[in-house]
Amino acid sequence: MDHFDVAVVGSGPAGSTAAGTLASKGVTVALIDKSQFPRDKACGDLIGPRALALLKQLGIELPNDSTRVGDMYLDSPKGRRLTMAAAPGVNYPGHGVLMQRSRFDALLHDAAISSGATAIYDRVEGVVALDSKYEIATEKGKVTADIVIGADGANSQVARSLNLIDERSTLFGFALRGYVESNNNKAIISLLDQSELGGEGRGIFPGYGWIFPASDGLCNFGVGVGVGSDKKAASTVNRAFTYYKEFLATKGIVLSDSAPERRRLGGWLRMGGSGSSFGSSKVLLVGDAAGLVNPLQGEGIFAAIDSGYRAALAVVDRPSSPLFPYAIEMKERHLTYLEATASLQRMALKYPSLFSKASEVLCSPLLPKIIGSSWGLFYNDLIEGAQNNGSKRVAKALRSSAMALRLAETLVA
Ligand SMILES: Cc1cc2nc3c(=O)[nH]c(=O)nc-3n(C[C@H](O)[C@H](O)[C@H](O)COP(=O)(O)OP(=O)(O)OC[C@H]3O[C@@H](n4cnc5c(N)ncnc54)[C@H](O)[C@@H]3O)c2cc1C
């Protein structure tokens, strides 16, 4: 049995960032993942501007051939289009980057190993607290550590085995992605209601379809839906995925409606900081294991690397009680936004047709252009670090409205 200062379970963006940061500061770290790298991961592959800024700060360089995405387009169910104009912030670039997760995650995993983390390829089955350490049971053996970082994604085994998650109060989402040949060079998000999906079922509201330009003439496309705590409701996604591909073909976006789609893969999202805390005692949850996905659009990579990095710093600064400083920082950096937008998603789950109508108003061509850039800042959680201008002021007002909704929800409960 091996003993480490820290065992990081899961080597996605959150775990690799945590392990790399710790190892570079002289901490002994086991980085345990059930998969060998490179491995695939269901994702839209879009790495947002704040994630790019943090990666740069951490000295992680992305390959030059990654596709840049600036403006994004939000299409309403009736086909109206809102342009979410991108702009550089004071501390992030005016674009995101598309990079297949198999490559991106392998890059971060390799960086953590080069920094000195010990890679263990094994499935974690449970974590037990002993007197002054933790025992991490894997399929093939055991590891012990003084501190555990749970970075094992939306279905975190670490969170489950220590009873750190309550699924009944969790906002889940489920999304399917594939790659398809396409002439599309825009990042498009399509809000779809029942009529677009052949009038069957409840459509995928709240949820959306997306198509993003990847590379080599391929686009990453998919559909995602919010289901609250009712995981069975995710069964609509398979059908919606097929309809969405047909829908794109009717818009002339996919090269041919018979173009085969490749590598269809699905995954759960745990959103809005719901259903779990940031850990207990000397176990810290990071990334999807802590439910840090944006409930409005499903982005989770930035919060994953940011929480992995902050958890590692808390461990280095306060090894005897890292949870307190880590949780305070997460509240400030992520939880306020996540909880406010989680309230919006809960409302959308309750009143899907109202939200469908609201999206028509949002995408109306009659609204001033500033709405597009402001909505982009709010929707993509880019308000902190945005340039001080009218767009930021409107975006802040949108965020305040969501926070007021959250307050009302809490008072009613
Ligand atoms: C279809 C889809 C599209 C998405 N699109 C985007 C997007 O475009 N942009 C964006 O920012 N976010 C997107 N997200 C969210 C994003 O993928 C996640 O937020 C992000 O991957 C979280 O990183 P993580 O490191 O916390 O977890 P993960 O990336 O899930 O990594 C967890 C790791 O833990 C390992 N693991 C799990 N269980 C065990 C175990 N028992 N033992 C050992 N290892 C284990 C896994 O093998 C994996 O490597 C999308 C999600 C989905 C499902």
Structure report:
The chain is of the alpha/beta class and 413 residues long. It has a domain of 208 residues: FAD/NAD(P)-binding domain, CATH 3.50.50. Helix content is 35%, strand content 24%. The strands form three sheets. Strands 1, 2, 8, 9, 10, 11, 17 and 18 form an eight-stranded mixed β-sheet that branches. Strands 6-5-13-14-15-12-16 form a seven-stranded mixed β-sheet. Helix 1 runs parallel beside helix 3, helix 1 packs parallel to helix 6 and helix 6 runs antiparallel to helix 7. It is globular. The protein starts with a strand and ends with a helix.
Task: Tell me briefly what this model is.
This protein is of the alpha/beta class.
Helix and strand arrangement:
Elements: E1 2-9, H1 13-24, E2 29-33, E3 46-47, H2 49-57, E4 67-69, E5 72-75, E6 81-84, E7 96-98, H3 101-114, E8 118-121, E9 124-129, E10 134-138, E11 142-150, H4 157-161, E12 171-181, E13 187-190, E14 207-213, E15 218-228, H5 236-250, E16 262-271, E17 279-280, E18 283-285, H6 301-317, H7 323-350, H8 352-362, H9 370-379, H10 390-412
Parallel strand pairs: 1-2, 1-11, 2-8, 5-13, 11-18
Antiparallel strand pairs: 3-7, 4-7, 5-6, 9-10, 10-11, 12-15, 12-16, 13-14, 14-15, 17-18
Helix pairs in contact: 1-3, 1-6, 2-6, 6-7, 7-8, 7-10, 9-10
Give a quick set of tags describing it:
single chain; 413 residues; alpha/beta; FAD/NAD(P)-binding domain; 8-stranded mixed sheet; 7-stranded mixed sheet; 10 helices; 24% strand; binds flavin-adenine dinucleotide
